[in-house]
Amino acid sequence: MTTNSPFLTVDDLRVHFSTEDGTVKAVDGLSFEVARGRTLGIVGESGSGKSVATQAILGLHSRETADVSGRITLDGDELTGASERALERLRGNTAAMIFQDPLTALSPYYTVGRQIAEPYRKHRGASRREARERAIEMLGKVGIPHPAQRVDDYPHQFSGGMRQRVMIAMALVCDPDLLIADEPTTALDVTVQAQILDLLMELQQEFGSAIIMITHDLGVIAGVADDVLVMYGGRAVERGTVHEVLAAPRHPYTWGLLTSMPRLTADVDKELVPIAGSPPSLLTPPPGCPFAPRCTFVDEVGDGRCATERPALPEGRGAACHLTEARQRTLFGERIRPRLA
Amino acid sequence: MTTASTAHEGPTGPEEAAGAAGETPPALMTVEGLTKYFPIKGGFPFQRTVGAVKAVDGLDLVVREGESFGLVGESGCGKSTTGRLLARLLEPTGGTLTYRGRDISHAGRKELAPIRSEIQMIFQDPYSSLNPRQTVGSIVGAPLEINGVNPPGGREARVRELMDTVGLNPEHYNRFPHEFSGGQRQRIGVARALALEPRLIIADEPVSALDVSIQAQVINLLRRVQREHGIAFLFIAHDLAVVRHFSQRIAVMYLGKIVEVGDRRAIYERPRHPYTHALLSAVPEVDLGPAMAEDRDAGEDTPKERPPRRERIRLEGDVPSPSAPPSGCRFRTRCWKAQDRCATEEPPLVRIEGNEEGHMTACHFPEAGTVLLE
Amino acid sequence: MLRFLLRRSLGAIVILLIISAVTFFLFYAIPRNPALLACGKTCTPDQLAIVEANLGIDKPVPVQYWEYMVGIFTGRDYPIGHCPAPCLGYSFTDNRPVLETILDRLPTTLSLAVGGAVVFLVVGLAMGMLAAWRRGTLLDKSLSSASLVLGSMQIYFLGPLALALLVHNNQVFSQPKYEPISEDPMAWFGGLLLPWLVLATIFTANYTRMARATLIEQLREDHVRTARAKGMSRSTVFFRYAWRGSLIPIVTIFGIDLGSLFGGAMITEFTFNLPGLGRLAVDSVTKSNLPMLMGVMLFAATMIVLFNILVDACYALIDPRVRLA
User: Fold this and answer.
1) What is the mean pLDDT of each run of 10 residues along chain C (325 residues)?
2) pTM for the full model?
3) Distance set, CA B36 to CA B72, B78, B168, B301 (Å)
4) ipTM of this predicted complex?
5) Which of A252, B184, B268, C131 shows the greatest Cβ crowding within 10 Å of its Cβ?
6) Chain B contact for C7, CB < 8 A?
7) Homologous superfamily of domain range C101-322
8) Architecture field, domain B66-83+109-247
9) Where do the TM regions start and end (chain C) (predicted)?
10) Nearest to C222 among A90, A96, A105 (CB)
11) A293: which DSSP letter?
């Protein structure tokens, strides 16, 4: 990983929600970095804490229900404990976000032009006219035909893919340094997904932003990410460059994701190898490794460490697993890789 | 996978065996010229039909006994409507549905009653398709009760057996759906579909609401059920990799029509229709890269940067509205090969030159059919 | 949009036809013969026949209905007087076309209903917004409990109570009376203030609860989160995004409440002895003044249907998806 100038640093982030049943530890000790111009892919299944963690960067959780701790530093500025005012200046300006479902994530009551122009007016103090010009320019940039006419349309008058383009235009209108894309293509068809991912990559080239791409789809990660963080049960379990993580994964959970995923080039006569059981409870997480109850390699570690001791994620490339690095490599080579062929 | 041909030479599963032996199983459901139009209301001063959403617009397909037939396409292509038509939850606007030699296109309630137990459905959403106030036992046993089936040993014993088959603990007979996870709920749905020993199961996006690791559990279960019980499946999904893994024959739908149909190898390795090509190349794939072939202790030597991305065909724009499909070939508005002929003449779904037996493509200017994924 | 309104108006006409037919046949099917009452205690069959002819009730009911409907458009001549179009019938009790009396009484009811609605919408929605803005706080909780208590009140309980406490004992308000707004706006306002508050009380609670609930729901919407994520201030998010989304359910409930609003206004004017349509309806019942009762019913139904069309038009103003569909 290139870590010489981390633009965003998240250190020991915890997001806990108090509910009637107890404290939900949605994110429980997460650390990562993103450099300018790089794309970090955060991959995980539902409930892994990937969306909760990134929303905490922008301070989007309600202070009444969520207890956020840890350190978040963006371009040298400490964000944890920052005032609501300071966060408002940051959101949509230095750091912007794209959400999964563009139909519900855009307000149905205002024209797309107005919604795109709004942050530009607020953060840049632009006049109504300038902001409108900018909105048209952005619509053109994201590939919407006839932007000068479409600027006065409402979101429901656009197709799903076009709506996601509008979302992207809105997120990029103030030329943010950090773009967080939360499952931006999950609600879209595969041919449209390909268009949107291409667009994001092109725009990154142009704007040079750092991107955090949240997804459950390893295929999307493979296509767009430079670095990868694998999340499970509110924690990061593996980290590395995209090639390291996909070609030589270290954590048994990452192995499980790869073996359970049907691929276009896999041998169809081989059964998929799913991960047994279901994700851990965030209310009462297992005391040791969160993945231990589903892990088939617990016996390899021995002396019950997996059930009692929480493995740490090493700095840089590595996995939060009690297996030694050498053992991780051997096991992957001998047991997992043949299944993937 | 080494090469496509070797994978086919050694018949490993029963599916391959059946295919290799060259005995085509008899048709279970034959669909000819099937259409389903949903009227659009409008007009002034009194509402009347002013148009139609042509969800399914002239569909021919055959589902054979015991085979898994996959139907893929993007949202709005009519694949779900097709599933509902085949289950006769909807009545077709035109065309015929022949189930085991009987025309059921417009069959009434009474005529359908015996067939209903032979055709079952599995739905996408394991949360909303189960009644939250019923126990698992009564959900799975309901088809037995409704049809007055009394299996030897009693209904409860049969339900427990079914629960065991789909990997649920039979002791959870009296639990309610909310006590189960998403994957387990989908297992309940599968058990319910199996209760009457159907001949055909129509599975509409059965795994798309599930997480990857859970999805694999359900896919494996369905594959096992399909093979062991010899049940024919109409497997409807948007995920091409999932369909490839589950189905032996696959049809690709676009705007209410099948544009290409053939066995797995034909569709995924030698697709002739530009749309099939585009769909396949748009699938984001985990390319395991050169490290896979390297020494297994590659660890530190693993290249740090990702390999160059595979070349992709990028479709422009969106799918046109099914209420006003383009003239001629429906795909022509997004097709990079389209010519004048495509706008005037609708290409028939036929075995075009160069296609293997059973591989049909509806295109005037098909792709060369070179090996794609190897 | 225009098409939509026209279509709604056509539908409204059909609904009004049905309402008129049902009320007509209902009233004329009751066994009490109005002619018998009008004729007095010493009534010979001959006299009765004359009275029946005068009242126009000697013909079969469908014929009467037809004449009634035609009369609405052309006016009618009764043996004792002329009833110009639109004629909703002729009251023999006070020798006047029904509509004239209704129009005399209408301003009172309309003032009550509109004024009451303004009070409960402003107060109710403001309290609901406040509760939603400060949700989970003591303020939110006290507003919620207060609205629960007030919401369980009834006009015929609250009205006399307020009258006794605030007018007779403490003179906080002047004695409720109706003064036309055109003659003395201050007197109009002062005279109706207490009835407005009483009428509004029972509705306010509902709107407080509803505004709070829909706002809190809207604040959880994806597009509201998007607005926050692009740096909009808390008040912009609240008023421009969440509040805009809350308007649809509020307008919907208001449309449903129109009927009870007019009903409530009628009960209120009865409670405070104001000369409105409610009193008129009650008096008509006690005097067996069937034409008047029929007229009031039909008139009230027309008003409610008209207001409903207005509410529908509001949808289109609020939601572009309706407008452009």
Assistant:
1) 78 88 77 65 76 72 84 83 84 85 91 93 93 88 85 83 86 85 88 90 89 93 94 93 92 88 87 88 84 87 87 86 73
2) 0.85
3) 18, 9, 38, 57
4) 0.88
5) A252
6) yes
7) MetI-like (1.10.3720.10)
8) 3-Layer(aba) Sandwich (3.40)
9) 12-30, 110-133, 145-167, 187-207, 247-272, 292-318
10) A105
11) G
